[in-house]
Protein: Recombinase XerC
Amino acid sequence: MASSRNNNDLLFDDGLVSSTEASDLSDRYIDYLRSNKGLGSRTLLAYRVDVLQCLEWCGVNDLSDLNSVSTSVLRQWMYWLNKNHARSSLARKVVAVRGFFAWATHVGLISANPAQILNTPKIVNELPTVLDEAQAEKLLDCAEDRSEDYAVDKSPATEHQENTPLKSQIKMRIKSKIKSQTETKQEYVIALRNAAILELLYATGMRVGELTSINVQDMDFENHTVKVTGKGNKQRVVPFGVPAAKACKKWLDCGRSAL
Structure:
């Protein structure tokens, strides 16, 4: 019986696995990881992309179905990846694909796991480049200065006010910074937000991804602590100091509702 599939939609040349089926398999694998491994949404998304890329590469190289994928083939895939990917990315992709084939073996999609003996590329653990104390202070001071600059009273001067040199300087400073009242408010709000972000990052050492997942109720201003959800949905309580508390309160009180 002739196949009803459109050859343009096939993932593998022999037509045994379509791109839709590959996507469905990847989704099933990701659902399994989400339910059993507690991985974060970013990691799950990356793993899904990694698995699909591997399957697409196998399709380009004339493999008919999952059982046609051998350890040798996967090592060729790793060699191809090594040409244009950082070792950290390659290591993650190997972990994702090795896990996928282990899962596929477990649920009976394939008879043997070709990725079982794949070695994860070694990554040289290098210390990250960080700001020194002076640079950090300069960055924080800059954010604070910007929020204070935009907080200057922007009310227009009336005609009967004395045009003193000081008042002229103030008006010229305002005119040079402000194009419109709306634009000024937006810049002020953004400056407050940026100052709060930098102060909290500096005070806690949390990851940017962790910062973006913080809810208002996670902040405890009385005890100066914040509840942080890290990798694997593991939670921890991290202290922060007075400068971070002031910046965050100012953002919540004066800026957050305006965005």
About this structure: The first helix runs from residue 19 to 36. The CA atoms of residues 168 and 203 lie 40 Å apart.
